[in-house]
From TrEMBL, chain A:
Residues 2-233 form the ABC transporter domain. Keywords: ATP-binding, Nucleotide-binding, Transport. The keyword Nucleotide-binding applies. One of its GO terms (molecular function) is ATP binding. This is ABC-2 type transport system ATP-binding protein. CDD domains: ABC_DR_subfamily_A. Pfam families: ABC_tran.
TrEMBL record, chain B:
This is ABC-2 type transport system permease protein. The lineage of its organism: Bacteria, Pseudomonadati, Bacteroidota, Flavobacteriia, Flavobacteriales. Keywords: Membrane, Transmembrane, Transmembrane helix. The keyword Heme does not apply. It comes from Bizionia echini. Pfam families: DUF5687 (PF18940). The chain crosses the membrane at residues 23-50, 62-82, 103-133, 139-161, 168-188, 200-221, 277-294, 300-323, 349-368, 374-398, 418-439, 445-463.
């Protein structure tokens, strides 16, 4: 589904990302981990064509991301709160995104209704603008908005941060369900190793912009990751 | 403690993004400050002589006193729109071991250094000096001057309270307009009793204690108000407003641009900055009054053409120059969605057209100045719709300044218009209507001038798609630059 080739990004001669080759097949739940500055958000921004690659390219379903815009209808993302329109209510925001993605009001209502649990009564019918919601609740709204319009690729940057434990567990269920039963390719990044190993079939570790580990998740993965980040790995 | 506050303040000033914007802007800012300061100084000196000339049999100080109330009400209004309350800055101070009272005193003290307070100073200090030179009694003039400054400071603090309640504002604004109307039509001169009060103040210097008391009372009120709300969830963090939900499904009939149109209306309605822009753009409606009332300009029809364009173009220009900056807060999201630029732009264009149409309807009283003037306004409106709208949108596309939607623009810190590209883009906005009118006017006659100006607008509408495509290209070419600029920290 997503093919990355020779991709690099430099800011003033400082290389922040350099991925020689990375292929993510359709329907995979893909996790990206790495310390601050490892290049996770840079990679996601390149995937969304928000910044220009210095070299190389990303192909999303055979579409060259930085040249055509045809990847947009089947790709959706929630990177941070700047993806929200602060002066709308959650419902208005969902309808707006729905309209952009060719969904009418009842389509959106139907989809959103499935996430009542996830919202925990704090998003819908609140008579509050998104800018006035707490960080966690903003995140919930943003994540669900990214599911509108049956996207085939969903990109979530740090989806677990700022969420309360109950919501974290529910979010894991949602992500698993998307990848396993609906065939959606889900890309997430996280600092929480436990969550990523729980949710993702495959985990890639970035370090200073380079892929240093590419693991199929198994029972041993968490231990391996912990050892890696603690710096006690035996080579 | 105060010393440390001041050093923080200095750093904030020095490191503010608008101060680091480059030499051109700095020069413009300094020139702007000099200009306004100079005008105030000049007016201050000239006031005495103007008053004397206008009403020769009355002592100028009495004339000035009679009109003071309008100055103060005007000041209050301007402050309401322009003056920023220093509320957000206290947040980091709350957890530091400093007495609350110190912080609040400092905060309130800081507001006395606002530009608006100096405006009064610049105006009345030279006036008082002229009075002294003319041999008016020193004690009276001195106490009167102090009273004025105290009243100005009182207004400063009154504004603080007014800003917290719309009720006070909606009382003050119609009151001012009503008083002016009553005075203008000679029904009731409210300036008389108030003027009398100021004159008494001048004649009995010891009464200067009254403004001092007024200031103390208002200061105390503010102090109590802030102290009561000195918690994160009250004054410091923004108030959480109940949603004003309106059914905008009526707009669905506009088809593919409907989602954007609905969003833009909410954008204007629910955010402080665009709301302010909308209010300010009403002021443009009165622009014609400056030009049409004076015979001097009657002889310069090119200037009149320019003024006529301004009458209906207020919203178009002030709102349009910040497209797409209005959407800067969530521009990344828009760019990752399947957004057709065309519909995005068209929505803004329709808003601007509607604004021109409304301004045009509101400008019908200008018929009073004659049909030729009104014809000019109509032609100006067509020019605005057909050409100016595209020029403005084009300029906006090159203007990559992030806008904070829910914060009012500060006076003189809004440097959006102050870069060379914007200056270049602004030129055709002014020169085109003048040229389009003036050249055929010189060659043929007045009516032809109006006709050509109007036709230029019609031609613009005909070529709408062409213009929109050109602007679209600017958007496409500058995509990464715009995203990067908008995500910069303010």
């Amino acid at each position: 589904m997503i093919v990355t080739s020779n991709l690099s990004k430099k800011y003033n001669d400082i290389q922040v990302l350099n991925i020689e080759s990375l292929e993510i097949p359709k329907g995979q739940s893909f996790g990206l981990v790495g310390n601050n500055g490892a290049g996770k958000t840079t990679y996601f921004s390149l995937l969304l064509d928000l910044i220009q690659p210095t070299t190389g390219y990303i192909k999303n379903n055979e579409v060259l991301v930085n040249e055509s815009e045809d990847w947009k209808p089947f790709t959706s993302a929630f990177i941070d709160e700047t993806f929200l329109i602060g002066y709308l209510t959650a419902e208005e925001y969902f309808y707006f995104i729905g309209e952009l993605r060719g969904q009418n009001k009842s389509d959106v209502d139907k989809l959103v209704a499935q996430f009542e649990d996830f919202f925990h009564g704090e998003i819908l019918n609140q008579k509050k603008y998104l800018r006035d919601l707490s960080k966690g609740n903003q995140k919930k709204a943003g994540i669900v908005a990214a599911l509108i319009g049956n996207p085939e690729v969903i990109i979530l940057d740090e989806p677990f941060a700022n969420l309360d434990p109950t919501t974290q567990i529910r979010l894991k269920g949602i992500i698993k369900d998307l990848a396993e039963t609906k065939g959606v390719t889900v890309l997430i990044s996280s600092h929480d190793l436990l969550h990523v190993t729980d949710v993702c079939e495959r985990i890639v570790v970035l370090e200073k912009g380079k892929v240093v580990k590419d693991l199929r998740t198994s029972a041993a993965t968490l231990k391996e990751l912990e050892a890696h980040f603690a710096g006690t790995e035996t080579v | 403690m105060i010393k440390q506050f001041l050093s923080l303040e200095w750093k904030q000033f020095k490191r503010a993004s608008y101060f680091q914007k480059g030499l051109v802007i700095k020069i413009f800012l300094i020139l702007g400050a000099l200009y306004f300061g100079g005008i105030a100084l000049f007016m201050g000196v000239g006031m005495f002589f103007i008053a004397k000339k206008a009403i020769p049999d009355v002592d100028p100080i009495i004339t000035v006193n009679n009109f003071l109330i309008y100055w103060f009400l005007f000041e209050l209004l301007i402050r309401y729109f322009m003056q920023q309350l220093p509320v957000m800055n206290v947040k980091p101070l709350m957890t530091i071991p400093i007495k609350r009272d110190t912080v609040i005193h400092y905060l309130l003290g800081k507001t006395t250094l606002s530009f608006f307070n100096f405006l009064s100073l610049f105006l009345f200090l030279p006036f008082s000096i002229v009075l002294l030179v003319k041999g008016y009694p020193v004690i009276n003039v001195f106490c009167w001057f102090l009273s004025i400054i105290f009243v100005t400071l009182s207004i400063n603090f009154l504004n603080f309270l007014v800003n917290k309640s719309n009720t006070v504002f909606y009382i003050a604004a119609p009151l001012l307009l009503g008083l002016i109307a009553l005075e203008f039509y000679g029904i009731y001169a409210a300036s008389e009793p108030i003027g009398f009060a100021f004159n008494t103040l001048y004649n009995l210097p010891y009464l200067a204690i009254i403004p001092v008391l007024l200031l103390v009372v208002l200061y105390q009120l503010n102090f109590k108000y802030i102290k009561k709300g000195f918690y994160l969830d009250d004054a410091v963090s923004k108030k959480i407003k109940e949603v004003e939900a309106t059914d905008l499904s009526w707009f669905d009939r506009f088809g593919s641009i409907a989602p954007f149109l609905k969003n833009d209306i909410k954008l204007i309605w629910r955010n402080a900055r665009p709301k302010q822009t909308m209010m300010m753009s009403f002021m443009f409606l009165f622009y014609g009054l400056i030009f049409y009332t004076q015979d001097m300009y009657r002889e310069m029809p090119a200037i009149l053409a320019f003024a006529s364009m301004f009458v209906t173009g207020g919203f178009l220009m002030t709102f349009g120059q910040l497209v797409p900056s209005w959407d800067s807060e969530y521009y990344k999201m828009l760019m990752s969605q399947n957004i057709p630029y065309r519909q995005y732009l068209e929505s803004k264009w329709y808003l601007m057209v509607v604004a021109v149409a409304i301004s045009f309807i509101l400008s019908t009283p200008y018929i009073f100045f004659g049909w030729d003037i009104f014809g000019m306004i109509a032609a100006g409106a067509l020019f605005n719709i057909g050409l100016n709208s595209f020029i403005t949108l084009f300029g906006g596309a090159l203007n990559r300044m992030p806008v904070e939607l829910n914060t009012k623009a500060k006076a003189f810190s809004n440097t959006n218009g102050f870069n060379p590209t914007q200056m270049l883009i602004a030129l055709p906005k002014f020169l085109l209507p003048m040229g389009l009118f003036y050249i055929p006017y010189k060659i043929v006659n007045f009516e032809t001038g109006i006709l050509v100006l109007a036709l230029s607008g019609v031609i613009g509408i005909v070529f709408k798609n062409f213009f929109l495509r050109k602007i679209e290209n600017v958007y496409q070419d500058g995509k990464y630059k715009t995203i990067a600029a908008f995500s910069e920290k303010k």
